[in-house]
Amino acid sequence: MQSNPYDWIDESLATIHKADWYRSVQTIQSIPGAVVKLDGREVINFASNDYLGLAGDERLIQAAINATNKYGTGSTGSRLLSGHREIHRELEIAIANLKQTEDALVFSSGYLANLGTIAALVGKRDLIIADEYNHSSLKNGAILSGATAINYSHNNIEDLHKKLEQHRQKYRRCLITTDSIFSMDGDLCPLPEILAMANSYNAMVLVDEAHATGVLGKTGAGCVEHFGCTGNPIIQVGTLSKALASLGGYVAGSSILIDFLRNRAPSWIYTTALSPPDTAAALAAIQTSQEQPQRRTQLYNNVNLLREALKNNLPHLKLLPSESPILCLEFPTTKDAINAGKKLKDTGIFAPAIRPPTVPTSRIRISIMATHKLAHIQQLVEALENID
Ligand code: PMP
Protein backbone atom coordinates (compact mmCIF):
# COMPACT_ATOMS: atom_id res chain seq x y z
CA MET A 1 0.00 0.00 0.00
CA GLN A 2 1.29 3.46 -0.99
CA SER A 3 1.10 5.82 1.96
CA ASN A 4 2.70 9.13 2.72
CA PRO A 5 4.85 8.93 5.87
CA TYR A 6 4.40 12.68 6.42
CA ASP A 7 0.58 12.67 6.49
CA TRP A 8 0.56 12.77 10.28
CA ILE A 9 2.04 16.31 10.25
CA ASP A 10 -1.11 17.69 8.60
CA GLU A 11 -3.27 15.91 11.16
CA SER A 12 -1.12 17.12 14.01
CA LEU A 13 -1.31 20.72 12.76
CA ALA A 14 -5.11 20.41 12.52
CA THR A 15 -5.21 19.36 16.19
CA ILE A 16 -3.07 22.37 17.14
CA HIS A 17 -5.47 24.69 15.26
CA LYS A 18 -8.50 23.07 16.86
CA ALA A 19 -7.12 23.65 20.36
CA ASP A 20 -6.36 27.34 19.55
CA TRP A 21 -2.69 26.56 20.13
CA TYR A 22 -1.49 27.56 16.65
CA ARG A 23 1.31 30.13 16.75
CA SER A 24 2.72 32.40 14.06
CA VAL A 25 5.33 35.15 13.92
CA GLN A 26 4.75 38.89 13.89
CA THR A 27 7.29 41.06 12.09
CA ILE A 28 9.08 43.95 13.80
CA GLN A 29 10.37 46.34 11.14
CA SER A 30 12.33 48.84 13.22
CA ILE A 31 15.13 49.09 15.76
CA PRO A 32 14.04 47.60 19.14
CA GLY A 33 12.61 50.07 21.65
CA ALA A 34 9.58 51.20 23.64
CA VAL A 35 7.88 52.00 20.32
CA VAL A 36 8.38 49.70 17.33
CA LYS A 37 6.98 49.25 13.85
CA LEU A 38 5.00 46.03 13.86
CA ASP A 39 3.53 44.64 10.65
CA GLY A 40 3.64 48.10 9.06
CA ARG A 41 2.32 50.07 12.04
CA GLU A 42 3.82 51.91 15.02
CA VAL A 43 2.90 50.29 18.34
CA ILE A 44 3.93 50.70 21.96
CA ASN A 45 6.01 47.66 22.75
CA PHE A 46 5.12 45.68 25.89
CA ALA A 47 6.36 42.39 24.47
CA SER A 48 10.12 42.75 24.67
CA ASN A 49 12.63 41.26 27.11
CA ASP A 50 14.89 44.27 26.51
CA TYR A 51 14.15 45.44 30.07
CA LEU A 52 16.85 48.12 30.23
CA GLY A 53 16.16 49.38 26.71
CA LEU A 54 19.68 48.60 25.51
CA ALA A 55 19.02 46.62 22.32
CA GLY A 56 18.86 49.77 20.20
CA ASP A 57 21.48 51.67 22.21
CA GLU A 58 24.18 53.41 20.17
CA ARG A 59 27.00 52.18 22.45
CA LEU A 60 26.05 48.52 21.93
CA ILE A 61 25.58 49.01 18.19
CA GLN A 62 29.03 50.62 17.91
CA ALA A 63 30.60 47.81 19.99
CA ALA A 64 29.10 45.23 17.62
CA ILE A 65 30.29 47.15 14.54
CA ASN A 66 33.81 47.55 15.95
CA ALA A 67 34.00 43.84 16.82
CA THR A 68 32.78 42.90 13.34
CA ASN A 69 35.43 45.14 11.77
CA LYS A 70 38.14 43.64 13.98
CA TYR A 71 37.13 39.95 14.07
CA GLY A 72 34.64 39.45 11.20
CA THR A 73 31.07 38.20 11.41
CA GLY A 74 31.39 34.61 12.55
CA SER A 75 33.62 32.89 15.07
CA THR A 76 34.23 30.06 12.55
CA GLY A 77 34.51 27.19 15.01
CA SER A 78 33.90 25.89 18.51
CA ARG A 79 35.74 27.54 21.39
CA LEU A 80 38.13 24.60 21.74
CA LEU A 81 39.06 24.68 18.02
CA SER A 82 39.17 27.96 16.08
CA GLY A 83 36.28 29.89 17.69
CA HIS A 84 37.88 31.45 20.76
CA ARG A 85 38.65 35.21 20.75
CA GLU A 86 39.94 37.44 23.52
CA ILE A 87 36.54 39.18 23.77
CA HIS A 88 34.93 35.87 24.83
CA ARG A 89 37.25 35.82 27.81
CA GLU A 90 36.69 39.53 28.52
CA LEU A 91 32.95 38.88 28.58
CA GLU A 92 33.39 35.89 30.91
CA ILE A 93 35.45 37.98 33.30
CA ALA A 94 32.81 40.76 33.19
CA ILE A 95 30.04 38.23 33.98
CA ALA A 96 32.05 36.72 36.86
CA ASN A 97 32.66 40.26 38.23
CA LEU A 98 28.97 41.12 37.96
CA LYS A 99 27.94 37.88 39.68
CA GLN A 100 30.82 37.96 42.18
CA THR A 101 31.74 34.40 41.25
CA GLU A 102 35.20 32.95 40.62
CA ASP A 103 34.56 32.38 36.95
CA ALA A 104 31.99 32.21 34.15
CA LEU A 105 31.55 30.46 30.82
CA VAL A 106 29.77 31.91 27.79
CA PHE A 107 27.52 29.66 25.71
CA SER A 108 25.90 30.40 22.34
CA SER A 109 22.46 30.74 23.94
CA GLY A 110 20.82 30.53 27.35
CA TYR A 111 18.97 27.44 26.18
CA LEU A 112 22.26 25.73 25.34
CA ALA A 113 23.75 26.81 28.67
CA ASN A 114 20.97 25.02 30.55
CA LEU A 115 21.04 21.91 28.36
CA GLY A 116 24.81 21.50 28.57
CA THR A 117 25.19 22.33 32.25
CA ILE A 118 22.47 20.00 33.48
CA ALA A 119 23.63 17.18 31.20
CA ALA A 120 27.17 17.61 32.53
CA LEU A 121 26.22 17.73 36.21
CA VAL A 122 23.89 14.77 36.54
CA GLY A 123 23.27 11.40 34.87
CA LYS A 124 21.35 8.15 35.18
CA ARG A 125 22.15 7.55 38.86
CA ASP A 126 21.08 11.06 39.88
CA LEU A 127 18.00 13.06 40.81
CA ILE A 128 16.71 16.43 39.60
CA ILE A 129 14.04 18.16 41.66
CA ALA A 130 12.52 20.96 39.61
CA ASP A 131 9.92 23.70 40.00
CA GLU A 132 6.94 22.67 37.86
CA TYR A 133 6.94 26.07 36.06
CA ASN A 134 10.60 25.90 35.03
CA HIS A 135 11.59 27.10 31.58
CA SER A 136 11.64 24.61 28.71
CA SER A 137 15.46 24.63 28.61
CA LEU A 138 15.66 23.37 32.21
CA LYS A 139 13.09 20.67 31.46
CA ASN A 140 14.86 19.53 28.30
CA GLY A 141 18.23 19.68 30.06
CA ALA A 142 16.82 17.23 32.60
CA ILE A 143 15.65 14.88 29.84
CA LEU A 144 19.01 15.09 28.07
CA SER A 145 20.87 14.28 31.29
CA GLY A 146 19.07 10.95 31.78
CA ALA A 147 18.59 11.72 35.49
CA THR A 148 15.28 11.01 37.24
CA ALA A 149 13.35 14.30 37.22
CA ILE A 150 10.65 15.04 39.80
CA ASN A 151 8.68 18.29 39.95
CA TYR A 152 7.67 20.18 43.08
CA SER A 153 4.67 22.51 43.02
CA HIS A 154 5.45 26.02 41.94
CA ASN A 155 7.47 27.93 44.56
CA ASN A 156 6.21 25.54 47.24
CA ILE A 157 9.01 24.89 49.76
CA GLU A 158 6.95 22.36 51.73
CA ASP A 159 6.51 20.31 48.58
CA LEU A 160 10.22 20.63 47.75
CA HIS A 161 10.97 19.37 51.25
CA LYS A 162 8.54 16.46 50.80
CA LYS A 163 10.10 15.44 47.48
CA LEU A 164 13.64 15.62 48.90
CA GLU A 165 12.63 13.57 51.92
CA GLN A 166 10.90 10.94 49.73
CA HIS A 167 13.52 10.55 47.01
CA ARG A 168 16.93 12.07 47.82
CA GLN A 169 18.51 9.05 49.54
CA LYS A 170 17.90 6.70 46.59
CA TYR A 171 20.18 8.70 44.30
CA ARG A 172 23.86 9.59 44.05
CA ARG A 173 23.77 13.33 43.27
CA CYS A 174 20.83 15.69 43.51
CA LEU A 175 20.28 18.94 41.61
CA ILE A 176 17.49 21.40 42.42
CA THR A 177 16.59 23.60 39.44
CA THR A 178 14.49 26.74 39.35
CA ASP A 179 13.93 29.91 37.31
CA SER A 180 14.69 32.97 39.44
CA ILE A 181 12.08 35.26 37.84
CA PHE A 182 9.54 32.94 36.21
CA SER A 183 9.40 33.97 32.58
CA MET A 184 5.68 33.62 31.94
CA ASP A 185 4.44 34.63 35.42
CA GLY A 186 6.82 37.27 36.70
CA ASP A 187 7.08 35.93 40.25
CA LEU A 188 10.30 35.12 42.04
CA CYS A 189 11.65 31.85 43.47
CA PRO A 190 12.22 31.76 47.27
CA LEU A 191 15.97 31.32 46.84
CA PRO A 192 17.12 31.51 50.51
CA GLU A 193 14.65 28.76 51.48
CA ILE A 194 15.69 26.63 48.51
CA LEU A 195 19.35 27.01 49.49
CA ALA A 196 18.62 26.03 53.09
CA MET A 197 16.73 22.96 51.89
CA ALA A 198 19.56 22.03 49.50
CA ASN A 199 22.03 22.35 52.32
CA SER A 200 20.09 19.89 54.49
CA TYR A 201 19.86 17.31 51.74
CA ASN A 202 23.32 17.68 50.18
CA ALA A 203 21.88 18.94 46.91
CA MET A 204 23.31 21.27 44.25
CA VAL A 205 21.23 24.30 43.19
CA LEU A 206 20.97 25.66 39.65
CA VAL A 207 19.11 28.94 39.31
CA ASP A 208 18.17 30.36 35.91
CA GLU A 209 18.69 34.11 36.08
CA ALA A 210 17.58 34.73 32.47
CA HIS A 211 15.00 37.40 33.33
CA ALA A 212 16.72 38.71 36.47
CA THR A 213 20.19 39.54 35.16
CA GLY A 214 20.50 43.31 34.72
CA VAL A 215 17.12 43.68 36.41
CA LEU A 216 17.23 42.47 40.04
CA GLY A 217 19.70 43.41 42.75
CA LYS A 218 21.50 46.68 43.40
CA THR A 219 24.06 46.12 40.63
CA GLY A 220 21.75 44.07 38.42
CA ALA A 221 23.50 40.79 39.30
CA GLY A 222 20.10 39.07 39.63
CA CYS A 223 18.02 37.27 42.20
CA VAL A 224 21.10 35.91 44.00
CA GLU A 225 22.15 39.49 44.76
CA HIS A 226 18.57 40.59 45.47
CA PHE A 227 18.29 37.98 48.27
CA GLY A 228 21.79 38.65 49.64
CA CYS A 229 22.92 35.14 48.64
CA THR A 230 26.05 36.25 46.76
CA GLY A 231 28.97 33.94 47.57
CA ASN A 232 26.81 30.86 48.16
CA PRO A 233 27.72 27.75 46.14
CA ILE A 234 25.05 28.25 43.47
CA ILE A 235 25.21 27.38 39.78
CA GLN A 236 23.92 30.54 38.08
CA VAL A 237 22.78 30.22 34.49
CA GLY A 238 21.42 33.01 32.37
CA THR A 239 21.07 34.64 29.00
CA LEU A 240 22.73 37.58 27.29
CA SER A 241 19.59 38.10 25.21
CA LYS A 242 17.19 39.90 27.53
CA ALA A 243 18.32 42.89 29.66
CA LEU A 244 21.80 42.43 28.15
CA ALA A 245 20.30 43.00 24.71
CA SER A 246 22.47 40.62 22.71
CA LEU A 247 22.53 36.86 22.13
CA GLY A 248 24.16 34.03 24.06
CA GLY A 249 24.05 32.48 27.50
CA TYR A 250 26.36 31.93 30.46
CA VAL A 251 27.07 29.90 33.56
CA ALA A 252 28.67 31.60 36.56
CA GLY A 253 30.12 29.75 39.55
CA SER A 254 33.30 28.35 41.03
CA SER A 255 36.46 27.95 38.92
CA ILE A 256 36.30 24.18 39.22
CA LEU A 257 32.69 24.13 38.00
CA ILE A 258 33.62 26.23 34.96
CA ASP A 259 36.73 24.14 34.27
CA PHE A 260 34.61 20.99 34.48
CA LEU A 261 31.94 22.41 32.12
CA ARG A 262 34.59 23.36 29.56
CA ASN A 263 35.43 19.67 29.42
CA ARG A 264 32.01 18.11 29.84
CA ALA A 265 29.17 20.35 28.58
CA PRO A 266 28.30 19.01 25.10
CA SER A 267 26.42 22.17 24.08
CA TRP A 268 29.56 24.21 24.78
CA ILE A 269 32.15 21.84 23.33
CA TYR A 270 30.36 20.89 20.12
CA THR A 271 28.82 24.15 18.98
CA THR A 272 30.20 27.23 17.26
CA ALA A 273 31.39 29.97 19.61
CA LEU A 274 29.26 33.08 20.05
CA SER A 275 29.83 35.52 17.16
CA PRO A 276 32.15 38.51 17.74
CA PRO A 277 29.43 41.21 17.37
CA ASP A 278 27.11 39.40 19.82
CA THR A 279 29.96 38.96 22.29
CA ALA A 280 31.00 42.62 22.08
CA ALA A 281 27.41 43.87 22.40
CA ALA A 282 26.85 41.79 25.55
CA LEU A 283 30.09 43.11 27.06
CA ALA A 284 29.04 46.70 26.28
CA ALA A 285 25.62 45.97 27.83
CA ILE A 286 27.17 44.84 31.13
CA GLN A 287 29.38 47.93 31.18
CA THR A 288 26.47 50.25 30.36
CA SER A 289 24.17 48.65 32.91
CA GLN A 290 26.86 49.14 35.58
CA GLU A 291 27.53 52.74 34.63
CA GLN A 292 23.85 53.65 34.32
CA PRO A 293 22.08 52.21 37.39
CA GLN A 294 19.34 54.82 36.76
CA ARG A 295 18.04 52.48 34.06
CA ARG A 296 17.08 49.97 36.79
CA THR A 297 15.55 52.77 38.91
CA GLN A 298 13.48 53.93 35.94
CA LEU A 299 12.46 50.35 35.17
CA TYR A 300 11.06 49.85 38.67
CA ASN A 301 9.39 53.29 38.66
CA ASN A 302 7.56 52.14 35.53
CA VAL A 303 6.72 48.73 37.01
CA ASN A 304 5.30 50.33 40.18
CA LEU A 305 3.32 52.85 38.16
CA LEU A 306 1.65 50.17 36.07
CA ARG A 307 1.07 47.84 39.01
CA GLU A 308 -0.69 50.62 40.95
CA ALA A 309 -2.78 51.61 37.93
CA LEU A 310 -3.84 47.99 37.38
CA LYS A 311 -4.83 47.60 41.01
CA ASN A 312 -6.67 50.93 41.28
CA ASN A 313 -8.24 51.38 37.83
CA LEU A 314 -8.68 47.81 36.61
CA PRO A 315 -9.52 45.59 39.58
CA HIS A 316 -11.68 43.37 37.34
CA LEU A 317 -8.57 42.16 35.47
CA LYS A 318 -6.77 39.29 37.21
CA LEU A 319 -3.16 40.28 37.79
CA LEU A 320 -0.95 37.29 38.62
CA PRO A 321 1.52 37.67 41.55
CA SER A 322 4.67 39.36 40.27
CA GLU A 323 7.84 40.86 41.71
CA SER A 324 9.41 41.81 38.40
CA PRO A 325 8.91 43.78 35.16
CA ILE A 326 6.74 40.90 33.87
CA LEU A 327 3.06 41.53 34.71
CA CYS A 328 0.52 38.96 33.53
CA LEU A 329 -3.25 39.34 33.25
CA GLU A 330 -5.01 35.99 33.37
CA PHE A 331 -8.11 35.27 31.24
CA PRO A 332 -10.67 32.48 31.69
CA THR A 333 -10.17 31.01 28.19
CA THR A 334 -7.58 31.00 25.44
CA LYS A 335 -10.07 32.76 23.12
CA ASP A 336 -10.55 35.57 25.67
CA ALA A 337 -6.79 36.09 25.94
CA ILE A 338 -6.30 36.03 22.16
CA ASN A 339 -9.16 38.53 21.67
CA ALA A 340 -7.66 40.81 24.32
CA GLY A 341 -4.29 40.67 22.52
CA LYS A 342 -5.99 41.55 19.22
CA LYS A 343 -7.95 44.44 20.76
CA LEU A 344 -4.77 45.84 22.29
CA LYS A 345 -2.96 45.57 18.96
CA ASP A 346 -5.83 47.41 17.22
CA THR A 347 -5.33 50.30 19.65
CA GLY A 348 -1.57 50.37 19.04
CA ILE A 349 -0.40 48.27 22.00
CA PHE A 350 1.81 45.19 21.49
CA ALA A 351 1.20 42.82 24.42
CA PRO A 352 0.46 39.37 23.06
CA ALA A 353 -1.47 36.48 24.56
CA ILE A 354 0.52 33.55 25.98
CA ARG A 355 -1.44 30.30 26.10
CA PRO A 356 -1.13 26.58 26.70
CA PRO A 357 0.97 24.54 26.25
CA THR A 358 3.50 27.28 27.11
CA VAL A 359 1.56 28.14 30.30
CA PRO A 360 -1.21 26.36 32.23
CA THR A 361 -3.70 29.26 31.86
CA SER A 362 -4.02 31.86 29.10
CA ARG A 363 -2.83 35.37 29.78
CA ILE A 364 -1.65 38.69 28.39
CA ARG A 365 2.01 39.10 29.25
CA ILE A 366 3.10 42.70 29.75
CA SER A 367 6.79 43.33 29.83
CA ILE A 368 7.97 46.72 31.11
CA MET A 369 11.08 48.52 29.93
CA ALA A 370 13.16 51.30 31.51
CA THR A 371 12.58 53.35 28.37
CA HIS A 372 8.78 53.36 28.52
CA LYS A 373 7.45 56.89 29.06
CA LEU A 374 4.57 57.80 31.36
CA ALA A 375 2.37 58.35 28.29
CA HIS A 376 3.06 54.77 27.08
CA ILE A 377 1.88 53.32 30.39
CA GLN A 378 -1.17 55.61 30.43
CA GLN A 379 -2.08 54.45 26.91
CA LEU A 380 -1.77 50.82 27.97
CA VAL A 381 -4.05 51.38 30.97
CA GLU A 382 -6.62 53.18 28.76
CA ALA A 383 -6.55 50.34 26.25
CA LEU A 384 -7.01 47.78 29.04
CA GLU A 385 -10.04 49.69 30.31
CA ASN A 386 -11.86 48.53 27.16
CA ILE A 387 -11.18 44.87 27.87
CA ASP A 388 -13.36 42.73 30.10
N1 PMP B 1 15.69 30.46 30.56
C1 PMP B 1 14.61 31.25 30.64
C2 PMP B 1 13.90 31.39 31.96
C3 PMP B 1 14.15 31.92 29.51
O1 PMP B 1 13.05 32.69 29.58
C4 PMP B 1 14.85 31.78 28.29
C5 PMP B 1 14.44 32.51 27.03
N2 PMP B 1 13.11 32.54 26.74
C6 PMP B 1 15.96 30.95 28.25
C7 PMP B 1 16.37 30.31 29.42
C8 PMP B 1 16.72 30.71 27.00
O2 PMP B 1 17.57 31.77 26.73
P1 PMP B 1 18.04 32.08 25.24
O3 PMP B 1 16.94 32.86 24.61
O4 PMP B 1 19.30 32.85 25.40
O5 PMP B 1 18.25 30.76 24.57
UniProtKB/TrEMBL annotation:
Residues 42-384 form the Aminotransferase class I/classII large domain. The keyword Transferase applies. GO terms for biological process: biotin biosynthetic process. It catalyses: 6-carboxyhexanoyl-[ACP] + L-alanine + H(+) = (8S)-8-amino-7-oxononanoate + holo-[ACP] + CO2. Keywords: Acyltransferase, Biotin biosynthesis, Pyridoxal phosphate, Transferase. Pathway: Cofactor biosynthesis; biotin biosynthesis. The keyword Nuclease does not apply. Its EC number is 2.3.1.47. SUPFAM superfamilies: PLP-dependent transferases (SSF53383). It is an enzyme of class 2 (transferase). It holds the Pfam family Aminotran_1_2. GO terms for molecular function: 8-amino-7-oxononanoate synthase activity; pyridoxal phosphate binding. InterPro entries: Aminotrans_II_pyridoxalP_BS, Aminotransferase_I/II_large, AON_synthase_class-II, AONS_Archaea/Proteobacteria, PyrdxlP-dep_Trfase, PyrdxlP-dep_Trfase_major, PyrdxlP-dep_Trfase_small. Its cofactor is pyridoxal 5'-phosphate. PANTHER family: 8-AMINO-7-OXONONANOATE SYNTHASE, CLASS II AMINOTRANSFERASE/8-AMINO-7-OXONONANOATE SYNTHASE. Catalyzes the decarboxylative condensation of pimeloyl-[acyl-carrier protein] and L-alanine to produce 8-amino-7-oxononanoate (AON), [acyl-carrier protein], and carbon dioxide. Belongs to the class-II pyridoxal-phosphate-dependent aminotransferase family. BioF subfamily. Homodimer. This is 8-amino-7-ketopelargonate synthase. It comes from Limnofasciculus baicalensis BBK-W-15.
